[in-house]
Each structure stands twice: as structure tokens, then as C-alpha cells.
Amino acid sequence: MEDAKEIVTVNVEDAKAVVTNTLQFDDKLIKIRDYAKINNVPIIKDDGMVFLKMLIDIKKPINILEIGTAIGYSSIMMAKDSNCNIYTIERDEKMYNEALKNINECKLNDRINVIFKDALEAFDDVKNIKFDLIFIDAAKAQYTKFFEIYTKLLNKDGMVVCDNMLFHGLVNDTNYENMSRSLRGLVRKLKNFHEYLLNNESYNSTIYDIGDGMAVSILK
Amino acid sequence: MEDAKEIVTVNVEDAKAVVTNTLQFDDKLIKIRDYAKINNVPIIKDDGMVFLKMLIDIKKPINILEIGTAIGYSSIMMAKDSNCNIYTIERDEKMYNEALKNINECKLNDRINVIFKDALEAFDDVKNIKFDLIFIDAAKAQYTKFFEIYTKLLNKDGMVVCDNMLFHGLVNDTNYENMSRSLRGLVRKLKNFHEYLLNNESYNSTIYDIGDGMAVSILK
Question: Do B20 and A213 touch (CB under 8 A)?
Fold first, then answer.
């Protein structure tokens, strides 16, 4: 990962909160980002990535659990410039295979372990590991369940980061009439997760308007 | 500090990036905030405080150096709910005395040490201490000097947080004609500090539109 060829500056238009920082992408990462764009794979926004990398830089986690690998972009970005081991769960076979390919190409297969399962059923695969950071970026309807299942494996002083908390602004949108029934259901579930998180007295949680809305929850 | 009587919710109007979190203030802290308001003492904004407290919560610093005590509000907030020792520097005598009074009233004088000096001349007072976090919130014209002087005392993996990086938005304002000469000078100095920080390869720095613009710089 040493051969960074391009420095991509975070676009301030997109980023309400991150004013200045740079993310470095080498050819392989640029290819992964291009694939995501062409194939409509939702990957973490640049400002969200800057924020997450800062949190990792401060926390220096040893073991990270990621719910929602997609094509491996955020795993690769988290593993790059750090020493952490990542366990990441993906249920979609096409995504899983693409992630494996990308992680191998970036030579990070010794530190990133991709588990091909529905995250609701992968607890046994990781139950003997203690995590310093859990990153949830998967099916939004299941956030509360993911949180409840996997935070059992959180180390003392561990933390959880959840992306998509604002869901393109829809969580704060009161204009329900314009939403389809399934979208309305999803928004309601995310709102419930907000409540759940902010009322969970075992954690100090803050939601930031960074990325697609990122929640940081620190175990008290 | 156990008797929090009021929960002040961060005002989202003010806070571009912090969507949800609460800060707890007891009677003494409410008095300090009221004093600041009445006497035009600039104290850290609520969203900036939420962000700073999150960083402390993740980092768990042992020793914190603060440049710019003012009336002790941020020192008290940082010391509250944590175990850190704080060394804080203030050159204004009235502020210094008010800070001492407030810190005593909050019974935090065993963990907060206020140094009555110009920060440009206080290096010898702290030169034998290693800091995990340096928080700069003082005379904006001197940020580069403060950074250069005191980061010598930063521990491995230490970090620096600077408030007022956007200076009420003036740093990104190109309408110089409406600024007085001294204000223009100050904005230019802050812009130079931005450049200095982002080009300083010993640190990973990100500037956030939180508080009055907060920079987080992590020693590589």
C-alpha cells in the first residue's frame, strides 16, 4: 500500500463537517472506488472515511469487527496505515467474492478475514474474539439487533461506530407522504435505533452529520 | 460533580456536525456559563465541547495541557467524568482568579493546575511533563508558536486539538474589504496556521466544522 499515486482531497461540498483532510488512494483503491460507482455499490463517503480513520488513529484498535463488507473498501481503508486485524461479515455472494479479490490484491488477506454469512447468524464465527471497535454499515433495518448481538464481544473501553444514521437526510424528514411504505418502515426502524442508542446508558453516544450520519458509541 | 441538575441538549441550529448528544451541567457549571455570557468571556461552543469530550473519552489521556484557561470552563468539563490531570495556562489576571475560584468550587483543584503566565513564556513550568493531549484555545495570532513550543512535550501517540480554526467563518471569507486591518491580519495568521498544520508531515490533521472550527492533529 506504499505506492499511493493520487491524493484525493475530500470534497467540501459533500462534507458538512470535515473541512480539510486528504485521503490517499493508490491504483488498486481507485479501481475499487470506480467499481463501486459503476455497479452502484454503496461505499462509505469520503468525509465519513476521514472521520473513521481519525477515530482508528486515536483508538488504535487491535481487533475490528465490521458488519457489512460490501466489496471490502472500508476494510481495506481501515487496515491501511494501521496494524489492526479485521473480521468483516457479508451475506451477498457476489460482494463477498469481489471483496476477497480486492483484499487479496491489496495484500491484506493476512489481516482482513471475510465471513460469508448473514450477520444475524455469524456470532459463533467470532464469539471467541474481543473487539476494540465494531463498525456497523449494513442492512439498516437490523441495526438494533446487530448492536445487541455483537456488543457482547466489545472490550472494556471499546467503541461502536454506525454509518447511515441519517440515511441521506431521510431520518430527519417529516414528509412521510412522499415515501414508499417500505422506505417509511426503514426510516422508522432507524429512528428507533437512534432512540435505542441515545437511551442506552451503558454507552456515551453522539451522532454526527458526517458521512451518511455517523454514530460513535463509547462503552462507559 | 455528581449532582447534575439540568441536561442541556446541544442546539442543532448551532451545530453543523453534532446532531445529537447531551451535556450535563450542575448548578456550578450553569453559574460559570452564565458568567461567561454576561461578561463576554468566549467559551468553547456546546458542539465543540461534545466533540472534545468524545475525543477524550476515546483517548483517555493522563495529562492534558490547555493553552488558554479563560474562566476554567473547558478545563472543568474535560476533568469531569475522567481521571486526567490538567495543566492550563492563562495570562489575564482577572480570568486566572475567576478560573481558580471556579475550579475550587467544583473541587477539581487537585487535578487542574492553573499557571498564571503568558503561554509563550510558560514552557519551563511544564517542561518535565509529557502530555497525551494538548488543547489550544487562546490568542489566535500565536497558534503556530504555541504548537511549535508545546508539541515538544507530546507523548508518543499524542494529539493536539485546536479550537477557533474557522474563526466564526472568517477564515473562509474572501470579503477582505469589510474587515479591519487587524482582523485581516488575524485571519491571515490563522490561514497560515491551517497551511502549517496540513503540511506538517509529523501529524495526521483534520479540520472539522464543529465548535468554532476544530483541528485534530495526531502524532504519527
Answer: no
